[in-house]
What we know:
Blueprint (H helix, E strand, L loop, with lengths): L46 H17 L9 H18 L3 H13 L11 H15 L4 H12 L10 H10 L8 H16 L5 H14 L5 H41 L3 H46 L14 H22 L8 H4 L14 H4 L4 H13 L1 H51 L1
Helix pairs in contact: 1-3, 2-3, 2-6, 2-9, 3-5, 3-6, 4-5, 8-9, 10-11, 10-15, 11-15, 14-15
Amino acid sequence: MDPSPLSASPPTLPAPAPATAADVAPPAPAPATTEKAPKADKPKLSALAQAAQEYVAPLLEAQLPATLTYHTLRHTAGVAKEARALAAAAGLAPPDTEALLVAAWFHDTGYLDVYDGHEYRSMARADAWLATHNVPADRRQLVQDLIRTTHRDEPPATELQKLLADADMSNLARDDFRASAELLRTEWEVALGKTYSSEAWAELQLDFMQGHKYLSAAGKERYRKDFKANKKEQRDALRKIEKKAKKRVEAKTDTLAEPKRGIETMFRTMYSNHMKLSDMADKKASMMISLNAVLLSVIITYLGAKSSALGPSFTRNPMLAVPMGILLLTSLGSVVTAILSAQPDVTSFKWLKKSPEIATNRRVNLLFFGNFTKLSLDNFQSGMRDLMREKDTLYTNMVTDVYYLGEVLARKYGLLRNSYSIFMVGLILTVLSFGIVLLYKA
Length: 442
């Protein structure tokens, strides 16, 4: 096998041909204007660099996981192309150019094995391949050190390492940098399960671009202008995304910024419904209190007549005391729960007595006397001024008021339900016991 170009010496230049008459003709006069110096020609690919390209390209195309949408053959070929251009701009010697290009082609082959830490697998693959081409150990180590530089935790030290690092990040200075970033976003979502909103991704990209710097002199010269323009474009794109997100949020919550008819109607309806429900509960409780008061009067009259020797004969039947006792307990239980339901209930906080200066607590409702009477006049006035000045605080107090109105209603209707249940069950038991007494007497 031919010796590796990494270790070969430069070829000897051929001897010049004999001069002819045309060669010795006087030179044409120089033009009056100075022409722009042509760009440095890209160095020709050495045999080893060409072999690396021919080996890596079909390997990545055939075996890279489908989840990789950014680190594809396209990315590797782009890095190798930029590395070749930077080598020409930096005026690298052929051996250094060759090492740089081989490292560029192999720097992402580790993705065939792992995702995180793929650079170290790329180093191993490059070393094994170079060994099959009889490359000396020191030159193989040079390529491995170049590939290691592409890891985020391995800062480049030599000029060659800086050139490869710049070539690897050259996408930040390309016209399609945002499209490449979207491919990377998709790759992270599929391969790593990391999801980002458009705003979060744009902000992440801008932070990365602002923190990135090209390190080599050739990289700075080649990418400075386009990279600066791309950072400005990314900054503008982030502003647009943030503006759209802000509009979406305002569209959902604009009623909290401006009093609209819809929110006023909502609160008015809620207050009205709560007042009606409270009035209905009080009326139902009053009805139960009146009914059971009558029953208690009748039962007490019966029991009084039973204990009197002057009462009717049927009142002295001892068996009738059972249904009458059940009815007495029923009426008593029902009337007590009805009275508790109708009893005024004031929601208050004991800790307000200890800390009456706390008028801005979200649990305190300054619109309800049960709360604000625990505050001092100065603290209440201060809280009301804040309430009238800030819409968010105003709505918070209104929502708090509705919440505690609901709590009071829940208690009222719970007790009222118990009153009706006791009354219903008691009547059933009274009728059953009365029937049993009649059958027993028969």
